[in-house]
Amino acid sequence: MTGRGRLLAAVQGQAVDATPVWFMRQAGRVLPEYRALREKHPFLEVARTPELAAEATMMPVDRFGVDGAVLFADIMLPLDGMGIPFRIDAGIGPVIETPIRTAADVERITVLEVEEATPYVLDALRLLRTELGDRAALLGFAGAPFTVACYLVDGRPSREYPKTKALMFGAPDVWHALMTKVTDVTIRYLKGQIAAGADAVQLFDSWLGLLGPDVYSQYVFPYTQRIFSELEGLAPTIHFSTGTVQLLELIGQTGPDMVSVDWRLPLDEAWRRLPAGTGIQGNLDNSLLMAPWQAVKAGTEDILRRAAGRPGHIFNLGHGLLPQTEPDQLGRIVDLVHAWR
Ligand code: CP3
After folding, report:
1. CA of 143 to the centre of ligand 1 (A)
2. Nearest CA to ligand 1 atom 46
3. Is 115 in contact with 192 (CB distance < 8 Å)?
């Protein structure tokens, strides 16, 4: 099988000749060639220039032979079409100049056609679809409405997102209006990516671990469910979150083809808690990669043993690569996963 064929079969629960593998945040600071590119261009310039974004996307495919090529982009890019200025500050992350806090703020958010909002993302995907051939599946992605709302309301990275939660609990009408708009944008953005050549899409709900099941059901679940239902039949979908053992059954019910889980549950136990037929992505501890190869190897083999050759597994980390990861570890993992029988 080709890398692309292998990953797309797995995400749809079909048989594969070897487990497909890619790494979240694989196109980034762990690679010296990426750091060299960033010496010449600021982050957002790389993301907004199709040729540069395509170049960064290809780096881990060329170096490690991963089966998935995740578009070099960021969950903040759709803000370009929402009329919300933002920047990415070194060592901090996304910063919103004027956070969204009131009904009037939500009212002012624009929902544009994706070709108008983020044309460069679509162009990068079109370039990559041609350049990749069948070497790897092209993965599009978006931030999930809750995680994007965390940045919009709090305005910058935070541990607890207290302003976001205050809005959710204190002004539920404003919250639901905001989530509706962000969901509309997300659906257009992901449909546009699929039309431009993304083979599958991943929805990143990175900060979902802040919520318990009742709050998730009431304030977030319906929006995530609407996204997956709108994408049904267009391309396979993967739901990502971390620290969400308490939400796993509910996440499965939002309707993705596959759920990405972190290391807080053994893979086989997580699998048992998902609806029948739902695939699973994961779940190596991203910090384990700081340990010597023997420990990484043992962790990788443990996951493969727990997957036990069931169809519907993509090997990945539980969360994105840490910047200090030694890149050679990644090549060794890819080879081990591909050789496993
Ligand atoms: O290789 C890939 O995975 C593709 C690229 C990618 C980026 N951001 C590039 C990026 C992806 C998939 C993302 C998603 C993203 N962005 C998420 C969800 C995934 C997760 O980790 O939970 C989130 C929460 C963001 C928001 C964001 N963007 C943060 C918190 C930061 C700063 C932290 C950091 O890693 O520096 C960014 C900036 C960002 N996005 C960088 C990269 C490569 C670093 C900017 C740089 O190169 O200087």
Report:
1. 11
2. 43
3. yes
Residue whose token pair is 């292998």: 6
**CB burial string 9-24: b at 16+ within 10 A, e below:** bbbebeebebbbbbbb
Cα–Cα distance for residue pair 51/57, rounded to 1 Å: 10
Question: What's the chain's Rg over C-alpha atoms?
Answer: 19
Nearest one of 44, 47, 45, 72 to 58, comparing CA atoms? 72
Which sequence positions are flagged as catalytic? 25, 29, 38, 74, 151
Give me 71's structure tokens: 């578009």
Does residue 124 contact residue 73 with C-beta atoms inside 8 Å? yes
Which residue CA neighbors atom 35 of ligand 1 most closely?
93
CATH node for 3-339: 3.20.20.210
53, two tokens = 């974004």
- The model scores a pTM over 0.90: yes
Q: Over the stretch 125-167, which tens digit does the pLDDT of each residue have?
A: 999 999 999 999 999 999 999 999 999 999 999 999 999 999 9
Q: Which residue has the tokens 């019910």?
A: 253
Residue type, 59: M
Between CA 269 and CA 272 the distance in angstroms is 5
